[in-house]
From TrEMBL:
InterPro entries: GNAT_dom. PANTHER family: ACETYLTRANSFERASE-RELATED, N-ACETYLTRANSFERASE DOMAIN-CONTAINING PROTEIN. It comes from the Bacteria. One of its GO terms (molecular function) is acyltransferase activity, transferring groups other than amino-acyl groups. The lineage of its organism: Bacteria, Bacillati, Bacillota, Clostridia, Eubacteriales. Residues 3-163 form the N-acetyltransferase domain. Pfam families: Acetyltransf_3. This is GNAT family N-acetyltransferase.
Amino acid sequence: MGCIVRSWRMKDANDLAKALNNKKILDNLRDGLPYPYTVRDAKKFISAMLDADKNSTYAFAITIDDKVIGSIGVFRKDNIHFKTAEIGYYVAEEYWGQGIGTSAVKQVCKYIFENTDIIRIFAEPFDYNFGSCRILEKSGFLYEGTLRKNAVKNGVVLDMKLYSIVKE
């Protein structure tokens, strides 16, 4: 099953809220997202992505048949890291294990390397998130190491893995 990665539209809010209103997904993302995740939350997010600096925030909807089933974004760092960016993504649970995350990551990395001056994209999934690690590996990212005791999520101190891909 293929996906298309495209710009956000305000009319995506209902689909986004449905996809992200899932504790299993939220437990693998950074803090700051409310649960339950509502249509109002989705509208606020989409608005923020549409208004974001186009030279530092590259945010896309992951879609199948134009229905939003996930989100992916690349966020440029600053100072001496201005040619480096972090990628983050998620896919609705009903679409896990179908290659959609890998397809979306490949599409976005290709876009970033072809259309910006970014030369390195990295990701930091939680150590236990084998699905996300596999997506990165299948997308050409290399494992660089484990960031020990790097985060606290839901009151638990966690290791994270560091992956990157560089523009050749």
